[in-house]
Amino acid sequence: MPGSITKSNRRSILKGALAVAAAPAVIGQALAQEKVTWKVQAHWPKASGSFNDSLAVLAKEIAARTDGRLNLELYGAGEIAKDREIYNVVRRGVVQMGTISPAYILGEAQAMGLLYGVPGTLRDSWEMMHLTKNLGIEKMVNEELRPKGVVILAEKAYPTEVVLKRKIGSAAELGSLKIRSAGSMLEYLAAAGASPQQIAGPEIYQAISTGVVDGAHWGAAVGALSMKFWEVAPFHMKPALGFTNDAYIINTAALDKLPADLRLQLLSLIEERYFLRSVEYLHQEAVALNTGKAKMNVEVVRFSDDVLAKFTQASKTILEKETAKGAIAAKGGAAVSKLMSDLGYG
Predict the structure, then answer these.
(1) Could you give the CA distance from residue 101 to residue 219 in angstroms, rounded to a whole number?
(2) pLDDT for residue 34
(3) Residue 206: exposure state from Cβ atoms within 10 A (0-12, 13-18, ≥19)
């Protein structure tokens, strides 16, 4: 009869209906298996220990955990952008992610100087970790960064220690030196009488070897060993100037665009690695310093009492300035001061 449905037609209609019903599942599975590659611009030279032990490990681990669905394409310092330029290339989406020192972008958030670390306040890496994560400094910074299109996540906490070309024993001797530095460490060293200079990481070795500066800090012993500073500056100064954070900076649009499971994997891994890397770094510090003393004639020298007295006063001044930057900074500064009080620090 005209218009009747034959047995053959019914089978065809049923197959079509089943195909339509299955389509969302098939599409969903295809999307779930989509591969994503992010460009990551590091502020670390590829020779730096942190490029390999922090960034390269993160890239390898995220690829493994996502079965190759999220891959990080790594660029060493200056390949796409230099240290202070990294914030803007990430914010504009030129690259999806970078590594950075908060010292390079102090003006982008009131509490950024606290995330970098106020010299002379804290005395161990775990204290900086606690301040950053549990006492809310990282969250305070991101209150201001998110509307700008980026988020910053701490990568590791570590000590900052200076290496010098010549041995010093007083504030007067320190006052004759030019030292490569960054962030609030510039003010800290200046308060002790030194002449701090800002020099990009890849250029520090040459600057020391040619006498442009008389010393530098790039982390502490691990940085001095991996960047070969001890070859030209064998005097390693103690105690640490302070404790600070390195960080990852991520474009929020790129982060939001990731499939939910990949976004969760990445953020969880960065959080996990912060604690693992911070304590691993302290172990590496001990190994590096022992290597320097045993094989490179490195001499550990303690800052003289008159230098330490100047540092103490400078620390108080810097904390007051950081706290005065606004309501968020005041909240962060109060957290720092209470932690110091709880720990019995002056």
Answers:
(1) 11
(2) 85
(3) exposed
**Across 233-260, average pLDDT:** 97
Amino acid identity, position 263: R
Task: Give the C-alpha separation, 12 to 21, whole Å.
Answer: 14
Number of other residues whose CB lies within 10 A of the CB of residue 65: 15
pLDDT at 2: 45
- Tell whether the torsion through CA atoms of 148, 88, 275 and 260 is positive or negative: positive
pLDDT score for 343: 97
Mean of the per-residue pLDDT values for the chain?
A: 92
Instruction: Assign residue 201 a region (left: φ > 0; alpha: ψ between -120 and 50; beta: otherwise).
Output: alpha
Helix (H) or strand (E) holding 115: helix 112-116
In sequence order, what are the beta bridge partners of 39?
A: 73
Q: How many CA atoms lie within 13 A of 53 on its CB side?
A: 20
143, 110 in Cβ contact below 8 A? no
Q: Report the alpha-carbon distance of residue 162 to residue 181 in Å, rounded.
A: 9
Q: Please compute the mean of the pLDDT values over residues 106-132 and round it to a whole number.
A: 97
CA dist 278 and 289 (Å) reads 17
Residues 6+ apart with CB under 8 A from 257: none
User: Quick one: DSSP state of residue 36?
Assistant: E
**What is d(CA 103, CA 199) in angstroms, rounded to the nearest whole number?**
13
Across 40-44, 199-203, 244-248, 277-281, least confident range: 199-203
Q: What value does the CA radius of gyration of the chain take, rounded to a whole number of Å?
A: 25
Q: Over range 42-68, report the average pLDDT.
A: 95
Q: What pTM does this model have?
A: 0.86
Largest Cα–Cα separation, the chain: 110
* Separation of alpha carbons 57 and 76, rounded Å: 14
Q: Is 209 helix (H, G, I), strand (E, B) or coil?
A: helix
